[in-house]
Design goal:
Length: 157
């Protein structure tokens, strides 16, 4: 079956198998930040944006993404770069394996809520599995980043 997906701003038309998962589609196009973890929609490693909203690409058929805009961390480097430094400063990037999914969900949070409470931050990150940290570093990094943006008078959108 033939589909067209806009991946990180580039329109791609391709013949695919009907059972191809979105994670396999984006990885076949060089988006290696999207990782295979649990394959049960529980770890957040495969998070991508579909039309600006986070989805788990291991649970979406590529055919379902036809006609949609898909963004991965590779397509959001500018937006993610500054924030990533705040996560690293808090020591929350130990092995780095979970980091792309964590950053994608943090960006979604920043776009939706510019002044989240600790509970709202934790809720956004709840679907991200990190075996190295206790998530406190990520929480501190997000809070520091939001404080930094507020001091600079910037919107997160």
């Amino acid at each position: 079956m033939q589909i067209t997906i806009t991946l990180n701003g580039k329109k791609i038309t391709e013949d695919i198998r009907p059972d191809l998962l979105l994670i396999d589609f984006v990885r076949s196009h060089g988006c290696y930040s999207v990782k295979r973890g649990c394959e049960t929609s529980n770890c957040g490693l495969c998070t991508v944006f579909m039309d600006g909203k986070p989805v788990l690409s291991c649970s979406v058929l590529a055919a379902r993404a036809a006609g949609h805009q898909i963004d991965t961390l590779e397509g959001l480097q500018e937006e993610a770069e500054e924030f990533g430094a705040f996560i690293a400063d808090q020591g929350a990037e130990q092995c780095g394996f979970c980091n792309p999914g964590m950053v994608m969900n943090a960006i979604a949070l920043f776009r939706e809520n510019e002044d989240p409470t600790d509970d709202e931050i934790k809720e956004f990150l709840a679907g991200n599995l990190c075996r190295c940290s206790g998530y406190e570093g990520q929480l501190r990094g997000i809070k520091e980043f939001l404080s930094y943006r507020k001091k600079r008078g910037e919107s997160c959108e």
